[in-house]
Amino acid sequence: MVDYFAGNKILFKKGDKDEIIREINIRLAGFGKSRHKDMYYGVKLEATHRYEYPGIHRSLLWALKTVIFYLQKENSVYSFRKISSGYRCYDRNLQTNRRTTNHKGKALDIHFNKNGVRTSSCNDMNKLRKEIFNKYLGAKWDWKAGQNNIFNLESARKGATSWVHYDVRQFDQIYLKDEYFCKDSETLNGKPLASLL
Fold first, then answer.
1. Which superkingdom does the taxonomy of this entry point to (predicted)?
2. What is the pLDDT of residues 124-139, one digit of tens each?
3. Which long-range contacts (CB under 8 A, 24 or more apart) does 186-191 make?
C-alpha cells in the first residue's frame, strides 16, 4: 500500500495521475460515466471543470420558479415557455463539437413567450434579464471577478441573444456538492439547502 500522506502537505497537484485519483473520481461520478477519471484537475477551475454533476443544481430550478412567480405577479406580457437546454453531458459536447462545461448540471437556458407567442427578440431577453433576473434573483452579468456564489447571466454580447442563460458556475465548491443537485422532484424537494450547509 502507498502512503499518500508521507511528508506531503499537498496530497495531489493539478495534472497528477494515480490509481487513488481514479478510485476517488469513480466514487464521485455523476452522469459523466467516469469521464476524465484518472487525472486531478485542481481546485479552482470550476468554469471549465470536467466533472459531470449528478443532475441539475437545485437552486437553478427554484430560481426558475421565482421567475415564473414574478412574471405572473406583475401581469407581465412575458411568460415561461420552456427550458431549452439544461443538462448537457460530455457526449453531447462531442456530438455538437462544443467544449462548454457550465451546462453539466450548473446552467439553464430558458425560452420565453411574449403575449403567448415565443419571442426570440434580443431586446425582450435583455428586458427579462434586467427586470426579473437582476431585480429578483440578484443575478449578475458575464462571470466578472468578484461575482462568486450568485447567479450569473450570459449577455447577448457573449452569445445569449434569443434566450436567457443563467448559471451557478461561479459558486464555490462548498455549494457544488453532489447533494445540491437533483434528478427528480423527490431530490429537488428533499432536504432544504440551508440544512445541508
1. Bacteria
2. 999 999 999 999 999 9
3. 187/55, 187/58, 188/58, 188/61
